[in-house]
Design a protein that fits this description.
2 copies of one chain form a homodimer. Chain A is an alpha/beta fold and 410 residues long. Helices cover 39% and strands 25% of the residues of chain A. In chain A, strand 10 and strand 11 form a beta hairpin. In chain A, helix 1 runs parallel beside helix 5, helix 2 crosses helix 3 and helix 8 runs parallel beside helix 13. The interface between A and B is large, with 77 and 77 residues. Strand 2 of chain A pairs antiparallel with strand 2 of chain B, so a sheet runs across the interface.
């Protein structure tokens, strides 16, 4: 059950744009029993689209093509697919009617150009698009299937979920791919591998991949199941890995560190306040990405300057003068200060040197302190992060959340 | 001068990882005179890599392959390329020496497995890797060139810039692609196009693309130059577009809104403080992504809860009680409050309903107010944003910066 994804659009061949649709398409395909073995981006050129599609049909059971279904001259997916399959396009009167109604309901006349969107490849099933004017198509070609979907995620996602995936499941005939993602903090990739390899090596039917992210290491377990088969060994492997990785494993279901910490705060009825210097918003931005975070996150201070560390977080001027803004003392004072100012259960702070400027021999770029305070404890953590400005800031935000998790467990 | 990029790595065929290297590779290739016409992602399978590479060599002048050059059994790029080109691999004694030294300088013995990284395809030029153990290769195949580079950006980038691009320029023989990116805020895609199309339509040698981003619209102008030719018409078109787009154009050189606003603050000697409710860090995170932002950004408050709007930003309890947290009155009080607390020249605030919960008929999800205050002015802007939680938050952060730009221009 091999699938491949073709994204059509010249904008994705510029330095500014990536094909991000393929991520959730891959997730859906995997659940339906298909593994993605190629992804291609091609520009708005009929010859190129036809070439890529021709190759794909020869080697894959399912080919998902996104984009190029709009009404303009740049939208060439329909004609390219028709030419590769050597099937004519016809105008579907039902689609013409639907398009006209769509425009009329908005009080507009349909421009003649939109009639192109009513063109259907002979033998294709039309996939309705409730959120846009470009219908999709499901085209069976021998044992393979070619699926055409519009590019905008708002249109693509619901069509994929409700119309394409159910058909794909039927093709897979009950075969499916199950997966588990486990996230680990505070270990290197090789530490994780040296602990995990002797265990996952005993499960040849499970494909195990180790990925290094920003601050975290992820283990991804993949298992193909035949119709009716259960994933007992996947559970078993996941449990063994959990036991051997211990406290460093912060999620065994792919949850992010901010989701894990959020749940811990919610369950213990505690609230959180933050004081961010070098991360300046990245940490709070991650915390509040979780829906419902207002139940435990009170807010905090963006204390980029020394003045703000004093005025909003109550750091004593003498502490700043004696130790400098990037110091364990200031990290602790920030955590304690913001906790008490906001009346939170827990205070969390980050102060460091993200670069490119501002480093010294004693305090180089990448040096970061995190402070943690609750009613009875006041601690700090010191770390040196490699990487550029964005890298240091991202790692600091992740590590602050990982430190908070450890703090909450004690 | 057609190029294509092949990214090797099974992790990029999962729902979690994209090939992001291709963005800066594309930028560098364009400047060197090459247009990217295909991008492919392929897994760690020798047969698949060989198939994709075989196709690429037949249709492209330059093929850039990233990844799969590590020392493990999963690293199959070397052998796949050798098999496609029908050239043997040999062990390069000079590379063996370099690898040994690299390990020795760290006090380690080189594992035997790393000898694979000293294998070179016959006829290839070795590209040195100062930041890792995987050397690259430059392989001329008839009129085409195949370039192998390691996957990690820290290793890939310097090799590309210092060793690959100069060679590519020589192949292009002085031909090059020049581009201009213009960013526009506060207009729809069709408004921009209806103004711009009559103008760029007069320049058939310049490829003009319109892209819709989060809040902004971008115009990208591309012009191929023959050796010795100058881009006079590109400048002319850019100037005409600038005139017709007026104040809505915030950058004619691809700068981000936070860079533009940062420069305005710096040049006018003003400082900035922010109060973020629904964006909660996203706005400050963008502002401080700009190196040197500490020269004008003082900090601010993450005022997620009403209590914090009062305690850190001095919003009067009565204003909150009378109008609710998401209101023009609270937006203005936040901007004014944070400005005076932090002693900043300008205060900027965002308060809104990002969803998924919290909306009502009167104040639906997507309703956002921005407040702006300086010594003499206090204003607000109201907007309704479509999209999910992340979308509303991203648009709010962008729009707050765009509003600040307008405010600073007055």
């Amino acid at each position: 059950m091999k699938a491949e994804i073709i994204a059509v659009g010249s904008e994705m061949l510029t330095p500014d744009n990536l094909d991000t649709n393929s991520l959730f398409i891959t997730a859906e395909l995997n659940e339906a029993g298909f593994q993605v073995h190629f992804k291609t981006v091609v520009g708005d050129r009929e010859k190129d689209i036809a070439e890529v599609l021709g190759t794909a049909i020869r080697r894959s059971t399912a080919v998902i093509v996104t984009g190029g279904l709009g009404p303009t001259e740049d939208d060439l997916t329909r004609s390219a697919v028709a030419s590769v399959l050597r099937r004519p396009l016809h105008t579907d009167p039902f689609l013409v009617e639907m398009l006209r109604n769509r425009f009329q309901s908005r009080g507009w006349n349909m421009p003649a150009i939109n009639l192109r969107q009513a063109e259907v490849i002979d033998g294709a099933e039309v996939l309705e698009n409730p959120n846009g004017s470009a219908p999709g198509m499901w085209i069976e070609v021998g044992k393979a299937v070619v699926v055409l979907l519009p590019g905008p995620p708002r249109e693509l996602k619901p069509m994929l979920e409700s119309q394409v995936i159910p058909r794909m499941r039927r093709i897979a005939g009950g075969r499916r791919l199950v997966s588990r993602t486990m996230h680990i903090a505070g270990m290197t990739e090789s530490e994780v591998d040296s602990r995990a390899a002797p265990i996952y090596g005993r499960y040849p039917n499970i494909e195990t991949t180790i990925l290094a992210g920003t601050g975290l290491i992820s283990l991804r377990l993949l298992r193909w199941l035949e119709p009716g088969e259960r994933a007992g060994d996947l559970e078993e492997l996941a449990n063994s890995l959990e036991a051997c990785l211990g406290e460093a494993l912060f999620s065994n279901r792919g949850e992010s560190i901010e989701e894990v910490v959020g749940r811990m705060l919610l369950q213990s009825g505690q609230s959180l306040a933050v004081a961010e210097s070098c991360t300046s918003g990245l940490l709070a931005g991650r915390i509040t990405r979780v829906p419902g975070s207002s139940a435990y996150f009170l807010g905090g201070a963006l204390c980029y300057s020394d003045e703000v560390k004093m005025s909003l977080c109550g750091v004593p001027r003498e502490v700043l003068a004696a130790h400098g803004a990037v110091s364990s003392q200031v990290a602790e004072a920030l955590a304690q200060g913001i906790r008490s100012r906001l009346g939170a259960s827990v205070g969390l702070s980050v102060t460091g040197i993200a670069g490119p400027g501002g480093g010294s021999e004693e305090k180089p770029v990448g040096l970061v302190y995190m402070g943690l305070a609750d009613e009875t404890r006041l601690v700090h953590v010191r770390r040196m992060f490699a990487g550029d400005r964005d890298g240091v800031r991202d790692r600091s935000a992740f590590f602050a959340l990982a430190s908070l998790r450890t703090f909450l467990r004690r």
